[in-house]
């Protein structure tokens, strides 16, 4: 409701100024649908999200006028077409300083096959039966959709994961890529999640082999002895994503 949006925005601004922050970042995963099954979701939250950002921007600007400065308003935004379809991209960007596009977690233990969780581009051999998943679950597709919605390029920040997602019990076919799997391995800090050091200092020296996909522009590792596959980010893929940001005039890179 308008009253609750006003109260929420006021509390955010009060907290921000009390602790000398530069602004507010909203991470709503996600309006309407696409988040945890336990979330309360409603169709009207597509519009409510826009109204919430509008109220936050108004109160941040009012505080900024008193303080003689500009306060930031940013969001963490989805990269999957089914989730960003529930956001009024063409309406929200005037209220925002930048948009952090979460171009990761495209695939994981919930997927039917091993796949890239952080691909920069689509891979022509992706066997996903849903053509949307095969062609649009990648960073470039998300960025192009945001640009097509009228968002200025310099407000788009490309997200990169500083972790990998893994699968266990994977056959050796195609070096473990696009294969069925038996389970989710124990990762660095929770099942299925591996940090970069664990991959390059643990898994690769222990017998896993790094592979590179020239189309998706990301690596993966496969250990044929243990049946482990991990899709992750490394120095080569991150450098390519940085170049993509430069080439497309984007606002920068963020990481999770």
Give a structural overview.
There is one protein chain. The protein is an alpha/beta fold. The protein has helices at residues 2-18, 45-67, 81-84, 89-92, 131-136, 139-148, 196-203, 235-247, and strands at residues 23-26, 72-78, 98-102, 156-160, 163-167, 193-195, 209-213, 218-223, 228-231, 252-255. A hairpin with a 4-residue loop joins strand 7 (209-213) and strand 8 (218-223). Helix 1 (2-18) crosses helix 2. The longest helix is centred in the first third of the chain and has 23 residues, at 45-67. It is elongated. The two termini are 32 Å apart.
User: Which strands sit side by side, in order, in the main sheet?
Assistant: 1-2-3-4-10
Instruction: Note the main sheet.
Output: 5 strands, parallel
Average pLDDT, all residues = 97
> What is the overall number of helices?
8
Strand percentage lies at: 15-25%
| Low-confidence parts | none
| Radius of gyration of CA atoms, rounded to a whole number | 20 Å
**Total strands:** 10
Helix content: 25-40%
H/E series:
HEHEHHEHHEEEHEEEHE
Please identify the structural class as seen in this structure: alpha/beta
Query: Whole-Å distance between the termini?
Result: 32 Å
Overall shape: elongated
Which structural traits does this protein have?
256 residues; alpha/beta; 5-stranded antiparallel beta sheet; 33% helix
Compact overview of the structure:
The protein is α/β, with parallel strands linked by helices and 256 residues long. The chain contains eight helices and ten strands.
Write the topology of this structure:
Elements: H1 2-18, E1 23-26, H2 45-67, E2 72-78, H3 81-84, H4 89-92, E3 98-102, H5 131-136, H6 139-148, E4 156-160, E5 163-167, E6 193-195, H7 196-203, E7 209-213, E8 218-223, E9 228-231, H8 235-247, E10 252-255
Parallel strand pairs: 1-2, 2-3, 3-4, 4-10
Antiparallel strand pairs: 5-6, 5-9, 7-8, 8-9
